[in-house]
Amino acid sequence: MTRYPFIPLDFTRLPPEEQRRRLEEFGNVLTRRRTVRDFAPDPVPRELVESCIRLAGTAPSGANQQPWRFVLVQDPEIKGRIREAAEEEERLNYGGRMPADWLKKLAPLGTDAHKPFLAVAPYLIVVFKIDYGLEISESGEEKRTKHYYVNESVGLAAGFLLAALQMAGLATLTHTPSPMGFLTRILGMPKNHKPFLLIPVGYPAPGAEVPVLKKKRLEEILKIV
């Protein structure tokens, strides 16, 4: 196996005051991110969203296999089909497929099977995880390549994406209708591509509201040893 060529690391060590300034600036934007369920239909420059996806693609991944694929959906007809399929799954979920304990935890948010944001938001980004590499020979034989740390890698890329979209001044929602196999079918993706996350992207509708939520304090999430 040929080893990658190595080059000097491009890294600038910042003075403490600059470190704090940058972190505060980043934090002021990132901590204002909220899950939005009411979107305006106003158009968003596509190159802005593409730039965010490009940044997501710089995330670290196991052995640099980059086991992700992003599908940017803008076609109203396809968005409508995705909404229809997602709502059908959600009706089954809320109608008995979800355990009572999960429904109890969702109740304060006021969510239900209706997902109009899937058709209203100008863009849907569907994040796929590539479970394994797949090559088809001319004779039709499959050759599979094992991918490692797929969920961890794609989760990192999704985090990069959400942060980039927030920095770009866009509203987002992390939506995971379960099961999500309809996304593979509707978008015509290969069988080794599995839906990981569905992200509506756009601007919030005028008067959009979000629930008052409390995040855990630092001492609740940090242990220093």
Count of domain modules: 1
The gross shape turns out to be globular
Q: Which CATH architecture?
A: 3-Layer(aba) Sandwich
The first-level CATH class is given as Alpha Beta
Biggest β-sheet description: 5 strands, antiparallel
Measure the end-to-end span: 39 Å
The assigned structural class equals: alpha+beta
Number of strands: 7
Low-confidence stretches: none
Strand share of the residues? 15-25%
- Please write the string of helix (H) and strand (E) elements: HEHEHHHEEEHEHEH
CATH topology category name: NADH Oxidase
Q: Helical region count?
A: 8
Rounded to the nearest angstrom, the radius of gyration is 20 Å
Share in helix:
25-40%
List keywords for this structure.
single chain; 225 residues; alpha+beta; NADH Oxidase; five-stranded antiparallel beta sheet; two-stranded antiparallel sheet; 39% helix; 18% strand
